[in-house]
Amino acid sequence: MTGLTRLAATEDLTLFGQDSWWLVLLKAVFCFAFLMGIVLVSIVFERKIVGWMQLRIGPNRHGPWGLLQSLADGVKLMLKEDINVTNASKAVYVLAPIIGAVPAFMAIAVIPFGPPGNEISIFGERTTMQLTDLPVAMLFVLATASVAAYGVVLAGWASGSTYPLLGGVRATAQVISYEVAMGLSFAAVFMYAGSMSTSTIVAAQEERWFAVLLPVSFVIYLVAMVGEAHRAPFDMPESEGDLVGGFNTEYSSIKFALFMLSEYVHLVTVSAIAVTLFLGGWRAPAPVSTVWEGANHGWWPMLWFTAKLCGLIFCFVWIRAALPRVRYDQFMKLGWKVLIPVSLVWLMLVATVRALRNEDYDIQQIVLYVGGVVGVLLVASFAFDAFRQRGEQEAQAREAAEKKDFDPMAGGFPVPPLPGQHLPPVPRRPARHPRELVATGGPESEGKEADGV
Fold first, then answer.
1. pLDDT tens digits, residue range 8-66?
2. How large is the greatest C-alpha to C-alpha distance in the chain, in angstroms?
3. How far is 91 from 69, CA to CA, in rounded Å?
4. How far apart are the C-alpha atoms of 186 and 319, rounded to whole Å?
């Protein structure tokens, strides 16, 4: 039996689906409360951390150290006037925030907070620290993320305004571009874990986290999840500099609050997926788990999971405070010309390594084969870049040789020069010393002398 088959054979989901209805309802309420609590804390600490990084004071009025600022903002938004746009498509205009917010909560249902075998007691009932699991749990996560994008797109279209429509179109292109790279980064994890079940993926990281085994997939997912969550520096659908407010420009009160809520819930959700797929999930870090046998039992796994989740959210905030927003063409070029090709090449390498391991090849032979392929690709890319750079230099030299004087008035009105073009030198009268101007009586006297006065 090959290694991939052995991992697939260990997938056991019989522990799920055995809970009574009230216990399922209680666990669902806990998942919702966990998400909302992390969201409220994340909003406050984002404003606090960004304030500290920018040497200014963050929120400090509502509650101790301003910790109730998120609650105050939510109450304020709900009490504001709910404005309905005249030209909006009423049904879709109201439905769009709900479509954007509800799917954001659904992915947490398959995220494990503890090992399946470590059952906890709730009111005398033994249950796992996970709401449910599926053989295709990660496909469920991708499907819900795709549905959530419809809320943004429909909000931009239904508003009946230009700038929200542009924000919705940007969101569509952004989701299409970065979900491809995200799915390819997941595929490498599926190959190593032998399953799409989240509990099985975490169990496969017992010896080593996938962030160490699959570093390229981890980095690609980190970039893709920032774009997927519409976070700076990839917050193109709501770029206030050129779209006023983006897809949510025409929304107010509770509908606007739902969009903001869905954004932060997505932030928590994509971070939880990163922890589950690449950072060992609920497992304690290696030094702790090796020294302390009880680190992964009881309620401790949930503590490790929450700590990793908060660390990733802090990285989100750090990126927002450190990096400026990129141009939209640069953003799309990064997705289609960098992330997707790199993901495809990396997935081919991972598949090759897994195939060789399943055929019982020695690890040294695998490294030799893979290193040879990578070396050939690097040499070919360097040669291609060298020839391309040489051709560009020759083309620039020909353009410089054929360059003519630029006439800014050739079209009948003044135009600025293009890159590589230069204005002809403007003839100027040489400046005279101030003493000479005083001796001659200044420029006015020169004009009078010239007129014979």
1. 445 667 767 778 888 889 999 999 999 999 999 999 999 999 999 888 888 888 888 88
2. 114
3. 32
4. 23
Nearest to 112 by CA among 311, 243, 273: 273
The residues that bridge with 127 in the sheet, in sequence order, are 120
Q: Is the N-terminal amide bond of 233 cis, ω within 30° of 0?
A: yes
Beta bridge partners of 125: 122
Cα separations (Å) of 408 from 19, 44, 401, 424, 425? 79, 54, 20, 9, 12
Q: Rounded to an integer, what distance in angstroms lies between the CA atom of residue 272 and that of residue 34?
A: 12
Here the tokens at position 247 are: 């897809």
Distance CA 279, CA 199 (A): 13
Sign, Cα dihedral of 127, 131, 134, 136 = negative
CA 202 distance to own-chain centroid: 22
- pLDDT of 273 reads 94
CA distances from 20 to 12, 25, 135 (A): 20, 9, 21
Residue 281 and residue 267: Cα distance in Å, rounded?
17
Residue pair 224/263 in contact by the 8 Å Cβ criterion: no
Any residues with CB less than 8 A from the CB of 384 and at least 6 apart, and which?
none
**Residue 343 to residues 183, 188, 198, 335, 367, Cα–Cα distance (Å):** 9, 9, 21, 10, 19
Task: Identify whether the C-beta of residue 79 lies closer than 8 Å to the C-beta of residue 252.
Answer: no
pLDDT, averaged across the chain? 82
Parse the chain into domains and list their residue ranges: 15-378
Q: What are the tokens at 120?
A: 């906890």
Closest CA to 102 of 217, 236, 266, 224: 266
Query: In angstroms, rounded to a whole number, what is the distance separating the alpha carbons of residues 85 and 255?
Result: 13
What CA–CA distance (Å, rounded) separates 345 from 54?
40
376: which residues sit within 8 A by CB, 6+ positions away? none
Which tens digits make up the pLDDT trace of 136-184? 999 999 888 888 888 888 988 898 888 888 888 888 888 888 888 999 9
Could you tell me if 331 and 227 are in contact, meaning their C-beta atoms sit under 8 angstroms apart? yes
